[in-house]
Amino acid sequence: MPDWAHRSTYHKCAIIFSIVALVGSLAYAGYIYFSTLADKNYQPDPFLIYIVLAAWTLLPPIYLWFDWEFLCKDIPPKDREKAEGRVTHTHELVRNVWLALVIVLAYAFKVKWPF
Questions:
Q1: Residues 37-47: pLDDT tens digits?
Q2: Going by C-beta distance under 8 Å and a sequence separation of 6 or more, which residues neighbour residue 108?
Q3: Which one of 39, 48, 83, 92 is at 20 to 30 Å from 109 when CA atoms are compared?
């Protein structure tokens, strides 16, 4: 097992937490979206909507930064090139999924854009 294997423990916890949060957020977004379609007078709690959006907007990039700065620094030089390529690819994939999720949530929550 490599010296930097503790990184996988953090990732397993993050993946479990992310899946639970993702399912909960999408379920809440679906509830809000379909409730506003069914009842035009329905007013969801904007505070909770902004909390969910703020969490999904800020937490994934903070975790990716934490992973890169603190968890990847223990990669030994002999494994660095291979590992950094994989980490970079994973971060790019996560970024794309994360941005799509934020856009879907903003649409489902019917967020009004300032422009």
A1: 888 888 888 89
A2: 26, 29, 30, 32, 33
A3: 92
